[in-house]
Design goal:
Blueprint lengths: L1 H39 L15 H10 L11 H17 L18 H22 L3 H32 L4 H6 L11 H14 L11 H4 L9 H26 L17 H22 L5 H30 L5
Helix pairs in contact: 1-9, 1-10, 2-9, 3-4, 3-9, 4-5, 5-7, 5-11, 7-9, 9-10
Length: 332
């Protein structure tokens, strides 16, 4: 009995070691987003609460915690309150299979990439639940937009992942990273790297694909009826999903925890630091795109996903399989 309790305590400790820094990172990402966009637009950004405005995210959280949670008349109360919780939960449980360094992973399962793809696919349920349970036409229209958008770009993401798996010969995320010891996959698979990153923008409903939040058309979309912490949970889920997709980009194409050159002083830096730096670089591009790109029209969004990315990614899968069969080459 004592061993079981000890094992359980150790596992809970490992989970907290992942979840707590992740939640702090989500909070600070809101600060850095406002700072980056402020710098691009020649503004100061947050600079009042705390030194350099660093406590602004915690002030925002305190403000939302003290506000009243309002449930619309006619809304399905149970589904209405479950939707933001599900959205945030799904963006957190995906980190169970993400390797931060060699052997630094909660669950080193052999089908880790399928687990990630399944969890990211489930994210649409929280949005559909929120739109339907709100009993509002604006919220429901925003939810339908988001569902169509996420489903459309997940098809392209799936073909991108298949291309990487063909090169590696394994579904294990650690194996995918180790297969990039000689060359990171963004070099031979550069078009798929671009498709994956743009699809990640659409998958997380980020600019220029933030159509579900079209303020001028549908009044902020599926979460328009939410307030206080239920509203904050959607934002936490969105930013956690941004970090997750940046981490997946790092693992699939940028060598994960591997240094760019396996020589001193690059290999002196711990793998966890390299992984964090690559993820931060991808997040910076998320923020950079939001500050510079105008929003797409919805027909342009669907055209890009179905008429450009889908056929091109399918063609690249066939081309990659043909090259690998012709050369008999696998990264491992």
């Amino acid at each position: 009995m004592g061993n079981i309790l000890l094992t359980g305590a150790i596992e809970i400790g490992k989970i907290l070691l992942v979840i707590v820094p992740l939640l702090v990172s989500v909070a600070m990402l809101t600060y850095f987003e406002r700072k980056v966009i402020g710098a691009i637009q020649l503004r100061k950004g947050p600079n009042v609460v705390g030194p350099f405005g660093l406590l602004q995210p915690f002030a925002d959280a305190l403000k939302l915690l003290t506000k009243e949670t309002i449930v619309p008349t006619g809304a399905n109360r149970v589904v209405f309150m479950m939707a933001p919780v599900l959205t945030l939960l799904l963006s957190l449980v995906a980190w169970a299979v993400i390797p931060f360094g060699y052997g630094m992973v909660l669950a080193d399962i052999n089908v880790g990439i399928l687990y990630l793809f399944a969890i990211s696919s489930l994210g649409v349920y929280g949005i559909i639940m929120a739109g339907w349970a709100s009993n509002s036409k604006y919220a429901f229209l925003g939810a339908l937009r988001s569902a169509a958008q996420m489903v459309s770009y997940e098809v392209s993401i799936g073909f991108v992942i298949i291309t990487v798996l063909l090169c590696v010969g394994s579904l294990n995320l650690s194996d995918i990273v180790m297969a990039q010891r000689n060359v990171w996959f963004f070099i031979p698979l550069f078009p798929m790297f671009i498709i994956f990153f743009v699809s990640a923008l659409a998958e997380t409903n980020r600019s220029p694909f933030d159509l579900p939040e079209g303020e001028s058309e549908i009044v902020a979309g599926y979460f328009v009826e939410y307030s206080s912490m239920s509203f904050a949970m959607f934002f936490l889920g969105e930013y956690a999903a941004m970090i997750l997709m940046s981490g997946m980009t790092s693992i699939l194409f940028l060598g994960g925890w591997l240094p760019p050159f396996d020589i001193a002083p690059f290999n002196w830096i711990p793998g966890l630091v390299w992984f964090a730096l690559k993820t931060a670089a991808c997040l910076f591009v998320f923020l950079w795109v939001r500050a510079t790109m105008p929003r797409y029209r919805y027909d342009q969004l669907m055209r890009l996903g179905w008429k450009v990315f889908l056929p091109f990614s399918l063609l690249w899968v066939v081309l990659t399989a043909g090259v690998l069969m012709a050369t008999g080459w696998i990264a491992r």
